[in-house]
Write a structure and sequence with these properties.
The complex is a heterotrimer of chains A (478), B (151) and C (393). Chain A is an all-alpha fold and 478 residues long. Chain A has helices at residues 9-18, 22-30, 35-43, 48-62, 71-80, 84-92, 97-105, 110-126, 204-213, 218-221, 234-260, 268-294, 309-312, 317-341, 346-376, 381-401, 404-414, 419-447, 452-455. Chain B is of the alpha/beta class and 151 residues long. Chain B has 7 helices and 7 strands, in the order E-H-H-E-E-E-H-E-H-H-E-H-H-E. Classes of the chains: A mainly alpha (478), B alpha/beta (151), C mainly alpha (393).
């Protein structure tokens, strides 16, 4: 028989620990099964009797013996059109008849089974796991050791060396992370935004980390127990405002989700920041719905949604971003300011101030992105002006057609339904709207579009600062 | 978030007052738990021509300085008002342990026609909203200071 | 605000408004000194301005009776969606394609916003509310919650293996962010809880992309080889929500979660252990949604059973043999990196291979078990040969 096959120490130890006969181990190794595969089978609980029967069959067929194919396997093979030779080859490659039956039952075609057999034959030839380890030698920048700073280990701090080279155009259609070595087999993921100018904001990574740090939890952060109902109809007016906030949050988060898959992977900072923005809106939808139901009233009337449609209809990310994060967010902040101002409990005030915190991050992205976009694509200035005209016009259309939200704000600000209260509410609403338009235009100025002040949609001009009122400081309310 | 009661005395406005506030807040875990805060805030006490800069970085107040009016206006935003306005706010904080709804930074900002938080840049001014929780916590800490107001 | 709650006091403007008739009084003069514009507001408050006619038809008389009739009180878990929805009716069918929040009064002229799924079963899972609240409570920060200072220098082959492992994960995690994102606008607002859950998943995956990129660049290494990605494209190609959920939540994320839970053997520091633990926690929620959604579909739409098998065939069944390369739907580079890590270096790659095989066994067993819980036990016999081999010895 020749010299007895030596069993590697590790494998012998595994076999002895499990009470597995060493003789069977030796026979398996003699048939060409790798030590690691044998060890894996022992650890998986292979029964010595079953293994012995299998090895006996393998020894017999490899010595030239005929492969016995049970009738039920023959029948399955006829149904799947497997030639007999394929089954014989599979068994000789070390695949048990039970496994062959399993493959037939799982619906493999003959050509698929042939590939399985080829892989098994190759593995046996190699005598070990099929590894190349070529990835260890790819030519990417090595030796990077970014240390945590005052804010911990931040995403932005990773942009060192070649990992900080953020190209103006991202050439990969795949999910390759920036700085990795490309794989020519990788398929396209179908992104549509490959140009940095189309989505970038310099501080997106910082905003991402800030968003995570300053997250709040609607269920537990708000002192729900300490929010008594407002006198009616103020409670109803507040619930109407909450309804609007819920609807707005839902549409904006849908829009963010829709655009996420368009952003190529080279600009992951923006993608992850948008993930936090979507999560912000989830929490807004959550908190405002809870507030509406807290004291028994519930949701009010939906808004017709005309004004939100152009946001969903946007065909360019900058269009969507400018509408969402500059116009819409400015408007939402105005609503939150009204909500905060009229709050009569710490809980209500906290809801609105925390929401404003999140919204202000979004305007920071929106303004920075627009600024970046216009610096690099000055030829698109009029195009952006057109987007702003559009969203302002749609807002005017809805504000004029549906007065529900306005009326709710008037009731909240006025404090009731009496004539004097409503008058006061109306005046205060105009005051807040003037502030909203001033802030909105000021943000556009920061983004590099000061001229929007002259082009502001006609309906909104009623809230421009009055000529006789001094604009004491830029952006201050007048 | 509750703040520990530690009494110290200082005159407002003064650099010492702001430094006391800085030290209190930096030793307070509640401030840290709100999250990172990265902004520069100017303080203008207009009728006294006193100006300060408060620099927030990561989880702490990194620095407070007495500055010129121009330097205060180089901050992301500044809070501007006469001493009477500041006094009313701080006395309210002292009396209640924190600002009541009518004396929060937000409410004062909404009530003043020119706003309490001002800036030369519409983007940077939004830091007032982004970090409002932290800024309010900062001023609320003044409840632990025995503040003496300049005449 | 003339009905201000007394203990909160009145705002200065209210004080001014109420005292305008007494404008000579010292206290009014003091308040007027505070701002220069109060006079202007006073003027407007005291003169007739044209108040447009208000409809006020959104004020419902029945709401008056409801105020305080039902007051929600937070429990130990705070105020949850479950408590809110106990007051509402959850319908099974909705023909509303506007963006109307659940329970809001319909606006007769509301615009349609999207082609939402009209039937609840198509996207629902019974545990979705609980999972959303849990996700909000259990957010973590990769910047500050990972003890990065515990990372220690590793032998070159192990550091390279870790960096390849991290490169793969930072690459693929956000597919699980992009994919849910594309489904958000198809989820009907009537069952908004599913939207909320998907938004938490997108947030989770952003954190995973971030934490693994940080690991690759925090210990003297760098990013390495991109994977083949064929399996990931299948997730993005889904044309149905249940298809997407079965492939991504039940199959793909389940495999990853088992890997993370087994991560002790691959971790060389407390930082890495913490990464695995926190990521596994997130993935568990995603799987829980997927399993319960699949269960719901099979219970409410039993005729879709073979359809679901087709979806799973694509990702792990016979069809996957043709459209993907390698044993791992992930990538050979990922498997090799795991082998090096588990073996403690490339010299012990055999030992690493053993560990990988054991992991595969665990992954497949847990996957099949989850399918049994979901009501698809027969999948055991329809797995691809590559996976089926791990069910047998």
């Amino acid at each position: 028989m020749g010299e007895e096959l030596r069993i590697p120490e590790d494998l012998a130890r595994v076999a002895q620990e499990r009470g597995f006969p060493l003789d069977l181990v030796r026979r398996a190794l003699a048939l060409g099964f790798s030590p690691s595969l044998v060890a894996a089978q022992i650890r998986a609980g292979a029964q010595p009797e079953q293994v012995a029967a299998y090895l006996e069959e393998q020894e017999r067929v490899r010595a030239g013996g005929e492969v016995h194919i049970p009738p039920e396997v023959q029948q399955l093979a006829r149904q799947r059109r497997w030639p007999r030779e394929l089954i014989e080859r599979a068994v000789r490659a070390g695949i048990s008849m039970d496994q062959v039956k399993g493959f037939l039952e799982s619906g493999l075609r003959a050509d698929q089974m042939e590939r399985v057999v080829i892989l098994r034959e190759r593995a046996r030839e190699r005598g070990g796991p099929p590894v190349t380890l070529e990835w260890m030698n790819v030519k990417t920048e090595w030796g990077i050791r970014v240390k945590p700073g005052k804010k911990g280990l931040t995403l932005g701090s990773l942009n060192v060396g070649s990992y900080g080279d953020i190209p103006d155009y991202w050439p990969r259609q795949t999910e390759m992370p920036r700085g990795a070595a490309p794989n020519p087999l990788s398929p396209s993921m179908g992104y549509s935004i490959y140009e940095k100018a189309e989505l970038w904001a310099d501080h997106a990574a910082d905003l991402y980390e800030e968003a995570i740090q300053r997250q709040w939890k609607p269920a537990t952060h708000i002192p729900w127990d300490d929010i008594p109902p407002l006198p009616e109809p103020l409670e109803q007016a507040l619930c109407q405002l909450c309804t609007y906030m819920c609807q707005n949050a839902m549409v904006i988060s849908d829009t963010i989700g829709k655009w996420l898959k368009e952003m190529s992977y080279g600009y992951h900072e923006v993608k992850v920041y948008m993930a936090t923005a979507g999560f912000d809106y989830a929490r807004h939808l959550d908190v405002f719905r809870k507030r509406a139901y807290l004291n028994g009233v519930g949701m009010g009337r939906q808004s017709p949604g005309y004004y939100l449609r152009p946001i969903k209809d946007a065909r360019r990310w900058t269009e969507a971003s400018t509408m969402m994060f500059i116009f819409n967010t400015s408007f939402l902040m105005h609503l939150c300011q009204v909500g905060y101002y009229t709050a009569r409990s710490e809980g209500d005030a906290l809801i609105f101030s925390l929401t404003m915190q999140d919204l202000a991050r979004q305007t920071a992205y929106g303004v920075e992105h627009l600024r970046y976009f216009l610096l690099r694509k000055p030829e698109c200035r009029l195009e952006v002006d057109g987007y702003l005209q559009k969203i302002e016009a749609f807002f005017a259309y809805e504000d004029d057609k549906d007065s529900t939200l306005q009326e709710a704000l008037v009731v909240l600000l006025g404090g009731g339904l009496g004539q004097e209260e409503l008058k006061r509410g109306w005046q205060l609403l105009h005051r807040f709207r003037r502030r909203w338009i001033a802030d909105y235009l000021w943000r556009l100025e920061a983004a590099g579009m000061p001229e929007r002040r002259q082009h502001l949609f006609f309906y909104l001009r009623q809230w421009l600062p009055q000529p006789h009122e001094a604009t004491a400081t830029p952006g201050g309310m007048s | 978030m509750t703040q520990e009661v530690v009494q110290a005395k200082a005159v407002f406005p003064s650099l010492e007052w702001f430094q006391l506030l800085k030290d209190m807040v930096n030793g307070d875990d509640g401030f840290r738990r709100i999250g990172t805060c990265d902004t520069t805030m100017g303080i203008k006490i207009t009728d006294r021509q006193r100006y300060y800069l408060v620099i927030f970085e990561a989880f702490e107040v990194a620095d407070v300085r007495e500055v010129s009016e121009e330097e205060a206006e180089e901050a992301d935003f500044w809070l501007e008002g006469p001493l009477s306005l500041w006094r009313e706010m701080l006395e309210n904080i002292k009396a209640h342990g924190k600002a009541d709804h009518y004396h929060t930074l937000n409410t004062i900002d909404l009530e003043l026609p020119e706003g309490f938080a001002r800036s030369h840049d519409g983007l940077r001014r939004d830091a007032f909203y982004r970090f409002n929780q932290s800024l309010q916590y900062f001023f609320n800490a003044s409840s632990r200071i025995d503040t003496v107001f300049e005449d | 605000m003339c009905n201000a709650v007394p203990h909160l006091g009145w705002s200065p403007l209210d004080k001014v408004a109420s005292m305008y008739k007494m404008k000579e009084k010292p206290q009014v003069k003091r308040l007027l000194r505070r701002t220069s514009m109060d006079k202007d507001i006073l003027y407007k408050l005291t003169h007739d301005e044209d108040l447009p006619p208000l409809r006020l038809d959104w004020l419902r008389p029945e709401d008056r009776a409801r105020i305080e009739a039902t007051r929600l009180r937070p429990t130990r878990k705070g105020l949850t969606i479950e408590q809110v929805e106990a007051l509402t009716e959850t319908v099974d069918v909705s023909d509303d394609y506007s963006a109307r929040p659940k329970g809001a009064e319909r606006h007769p002229a509301a615009a349609r916003h999207s082609w939402y799924y009209p039937v609840r079963h198509e996207t629902w899972a019974d545990n979705v509310r609980l999972l959303y609240e849990e996700a909000v409570q259990r957010q973590w920060s990769s910047a500050t919650d990972i003890p990065w200072h515990t990372l220690r220098p590793l032998p070159d082959d192990i550091e390279r293996a870790w960096c390849q492992f991290a490169t793969f994960l930072t690459e693929v995690e956000f597919i699980a962010g992009d994919a849910p994102g594309q489904w958000l606008e198809r989820i009907n607002p009537e069952w908004y809880e599913v939207k909320l859950f998907l938004l938490t998943q997108i947030m989770d995956e952003a954190r995973h992309l971030d934490v693994f990129r940080k690991r690759a660049l925090a210990n003297g290494g760098g990013l390495l080889q991109e994977s083949t990605g064929a399996g990931l494209r299948i997730i993005l190609e889904c044309q149905d929500f249940s298809e997407f959920s079965a492939i991504m939540h039940v199959f793909a994320e389940a495999l990853v979660q088992t890997l993370f839970r087994s991560g002790e053997a691959l971790a060389y520091s407390e930082a890495e252990k913490t990464i695995f633990r926190l990521c596994a926690q997130d993935e568990s929620r995603h799987i829980a949604f997927g399993v319960m959604h699949l269960k719901h579909i099979l219970e409410t739409q039993p005729w879709r059973r073979e359809e679901i098998h087709y979806y799973l065939d694509k990702i792990e069944g016979p069809l996957s043999l043709d459209i993907q390369s390698g044993h791992s739907a992930a990538s050979p580079v990922f498997d090799e990196a795991i082998m090096v890590l588990a073996g403690g270096g490339r010299k012990n790659i055999d030992k690493g291979f053993d560990w990988l095989m054991q992991l595969r066994r665990r992954q497949v067993h847990e996957y099949v078990h989850r399918l049994e819980v979901a009501g698809l036990p027969e999948r055991r016999y329809r797995l691809s040969p590559a996976l089926r081999a791990f069910l047998e010895t």
